Amino acid sequence: MDDHVRPSRVVILGGGFAGLFAARALRNTPVAVTVVDRCAHHLFQPLLYQCATGILSEGQIARPLRTVLRRHKNVQCLLAEVTDVDVEGRVVHAERPDGGTSELPYDHLVVAAGVRQSYFGHDEFARYAPGMKTLDDALDIRRRLYRAFEAADAATDPDERRRLLTFALVGAGPTGVELAGQIREIATRTIEREFALIDTDQARVLLFEGGESVLAAFGPKLSRRAARTLERIGVEVHLGTLVEHVDEHGLSVRDKDGGPRRFDAGTVLWTAGVQAPPLATRLAKATGAAQDRAGRIIVEPDLTIAGHPEIRVAGDMMSLGGLPGLAEVAMQSGIYAALRIRHEVEGRTRPPRPFRYRDLGSAAYISRGRAVVRRGPLHMSGPAAWLVWLFIHIAFLNGFRNRLGAVLSWLVVFASGARRERAFTSRRAGPA
Ligand SMILES: Cc1cc2nc3c(=O)[nH]c(=O)nc-3n(C[C@H](O)[C@H](O)[C@H](O)COP(=O)(O)OP(=O)(O)OC[C@H]3O[C@@H](n4cnc5c(N)ncnc54)[C@H](O)[C@@H]3O)c2cc1C
User: Which residues are tagged catalytic?
Assistant: First the structure.
């Protein structure tokens, strides 16, 4: 029952798409909202690959949460790592960056902590094949990519030079496809005249996929077109191929004929599979909630956890009727969770309508002027799809300056191949 003396306390765990849209939707509701996130920024994950490949800057895809929510007077932001939820006591436990801990009591909890990379039981691969989920990951990948060309130019052994100029991507979903296209573009259009000793055009980009198609979620027609476009720009696509081992020199696979094959590669990037973080398992144990195979929490149709109407799970961390892990699902579920809280606080008694996801379609960028777009029965590819991709991303990027800056960067890279954001730090984080 809500307390009428003080406003209800809403804690939102995570300031990604689900958490941010939940906080925004509570703007005119008499509740005190705390958004707690281990990062101080809201990250636009769909454009991480553009930051990693030097088109966009960190600031263009990540905005301070405090700035984004500055006009929301009932919202506080807290930079802290949530370590546990005391479900009985209704308290969130978090570790602050000053080393102290915070206890955040709540009347309503929205859990929107997203997912992380899955290595399908081989976490040891992470050291050699980083995934791309955070801003740190994108900057680490940028360092690995551009450093690989530098190292190849400095190498004297031709075999080592070839290895350094080989880039392997595991997983042909949108992120793998986008990164593969971008690496070929860097090699052929951005840095192709900058090195004296290497021909960057010779850089090999290998894309491994365990399934039978690239961009499987876009359907067979677009998938075939995407594969053709990738091959045209020089990406070697290996379908039906399972990666069995990754080490500092490359990777070993089992190809579709069952044969083992070894590929030496200087850079291996992992874009296959997701799993819920350990926090999801702790919460599931504490509430008795079931989890799906990826560890996501199985929620009721109104996004609550069964037996816990005060806890809602939104975004990538929720499992509901096979909904995909997409930004649009996260935004809509965050808004839905907030509206349910508002209705409860306002004392509305009608049983809530279940969460219904409105599929607005999806888009993936392949290479310069080439994308694929799927919306219901509409399937587009090529330059028209690229224009649609452009407008979708302009619409969803956060902040006017970011939109303007991004459009400028896209026009420059489209026209000349030049990328402004190629700087990387010398931080050592594993093999080049
Ligand atoms: C590389 C990449 C490309 C993508 N491309 C697309 C695309 O083209 N189209 C599309 O629709 N979707 C895309 N997605 C998926 C989309 O970004 C996600 O579906 C969406 O971000 C999910 O939102 P979320 O709020 O559930 O989780 P997230 O956006 O992951 O946010 C979770 C937040 O919780 C915080 N957090 C997690 N654990 C803790 C903790 N213990 N304590 C404190 N804070 C914590 C994190 O810091 C993060 O800010 C892509 C994702 C990635 C990684």
Answer: 178
Does residue 410 lie within any of the structural domains?
no
d(CA 242, CA 255): 6
Minimum mean pLDDT range among 33-37, 42-46, 376-380: 376-380
Ligand 1 atom with the smallest distance to the CA of 315 is 26
Residue nearest atom 50 of ligand 1, based on CA coordinates: 46
Give pLDDT tens digits for 337-377. 999 999 999 998 787 799 999 998 889 999 888 999 998 88
Residue 130 and residue 246 in one domain: yes
Say if residues 119 and 242 touch (Cβ distance below 8 Å): no
List the CATH number of the domain containing 179.
3.50.50.100
Q: What is the mean pLDDT of residues 174-178?
A: 96
Find out whether 307 and 326 touch, Cβ atoms under 8 Å. Answer: no
240 Cα–ligand 1 center, Å: 28
- Domain endpoint, select from 273, 301, 331: 273
* Residue 97, domain extent: 8-38+80-115+276-345
The C-alpha angle 208, 214, 218, rounded to 5 degrees, equals 155
Mean pLDDT of the chain: 94
Q: Which two tokens stand for residue 98?
A: 């000053």
